[in-house]
Design brief:
This protein folds into two domains: 3-94, 434 Repressor (Amino-terminal Domain) (Orthogonal Bundle); 109-292, 2-Layer Sandwich (Beta-Lactamase), CATH 3.30.450. The radius of gyration is 23 Å and the shape is elongated. It has a five-stranded antiparallel β-sheet, with helices on both faces. It has 13 helices and five strands. It has 300 residues and is α+β, with helices and mostly antiparallel strands. 50% of the residues lie in helices and 11% in strands. It starts with a helix and ends in a 6-residue tail after the last helix. Helix 4 runs antiparallel to helix 5.
Length: 300
């Protein structure tokens, strides 16, 4: 991924979405050939020269100071997530790309302890590219019961949340408002691409999704970003029906996301989630017992 190109595309996209009337720029009734603000108008608002701003958008400059970036963020009306993304993109333009294959991501013992403690709550641990690094039994049952429980344990076979959302029919049907979930996934990937512009595996994932999903390609071109946080989705689970599920995301020290899914106590959604978790846990215990019974018995 070219960090300079990403920076330029982000600035251009945000500029095109900002109308002159949003920032009190006079148009004098003239016909405008471009959507949103012109480059020189944005540069004037940010207090930088039009030529310098043009070079930033064209990927020909990599020395923007934090002060200039903050001025651009104010002019573009960026929120906190977008402002952070802008700074990370600018930092990426100054990095020397090594090109080495990143080390496989692993779940720390502390995170595994957390997963074990939350045994009655669906939990999924996602890596920086959205790879499923681990899940507990309820998490597997909620998100991907059609996949093997042990699939996250094998790096080459790990499910990827973005692939599931855009390319897997089961996951698409799981969300009543699939587009909202898809936009959140794309926005999270956009943040990751700004923070890790040198990651070849992330670049390969983005290329694959762009080719295989026209919807992803369209959403990716919008350059939306977001922090991890809480989100409420209506999930239509094939076993227990519709639930209102709150997905809460906690960030670990090694840039992994622990996603816990909860429902409002006493609600029909809570009853449905309890049924799903009970079925998943008892089903797994029963399967484990059957495997023990079927195991060959050694004789002396």
């Amino acid at each position: 991924m070219d960090a300079k190109r990403q920076l330029g595309e982000f600035l251009q996209t945000r500029r095109s979405q900002l109308r002159p009337e949003d920032v009190d720029v006079a148009t004098y009734g003239g016909r405008r050939r471009v959507p949103g603000l012109r480059r020189e108008e944005l540069a004037l608002l940010a207090g930088v020269s039009a030529s310098y701003y043009s070079r930033l958008e064209q990927g020909q400059a990599s020395n923007a100071s934090p002060e200039v970036l903050d001025a651009l963020a104010r002019a573009l009306r960026l929120d906190d997530a977008e402002r952070r993304h802008l700074h990370e993109l600018a930092t990426g333009t100054r990095r020397r790309v090594v090109g080495r294959r990143p080390a496989p991501e692993r779940v720390s013992p502390a995170t595994r302890q957390l997963i074990a403690t939350l045994s009655d709550v669906p939990v999924v641990v996602l890596g920086r590219r959205g790879d499923v690094l681990a899940w507990n039994t309820p998490g597997h049952a909620l998100y991907a019961g059609h996949l093997a429980m042990d699939s996250p344990d094998i790096p080459r076979q790990r499910p990827n949340m973005a692939r599931l959302v855009f390319l897997d029919a089961h996951t698409r049907d799981l969300y009543a408002d699939w587009a909202a979930k898809a936009r959140a996934v794309v926005a999270t990937l956009r943040m990751a691409s700004g923070h890790h512009p040198e990651d070849p595996l992330l670049a390969a994932l983005l290329g694959e999704l762009t080719v295989k999903s026209p919807v992803f390609a369209t959403m990716w071109a919008d350059h939306r970003v977001k922090f991890g946080g809480d989100a409420v989705y209506e999930m239509r689970h094939p076993l227990v029906g519709t639930m209102q599920v709150t997905q809460q995301t906690l960030q670990t020290a090694d840039e992994q996301a622990v996603v816990a899914s909860t429902t409002e106590p006493g609600s029909p959604s809570h009853s449905a989630m309890t049924l799903l978790i009970h079925s998943a846990v008892t089903g797994r215990a029963s399967a484990a017992q059957d495997r023990r019974h079927d195991a060959p018995t050694r004789t002396g």
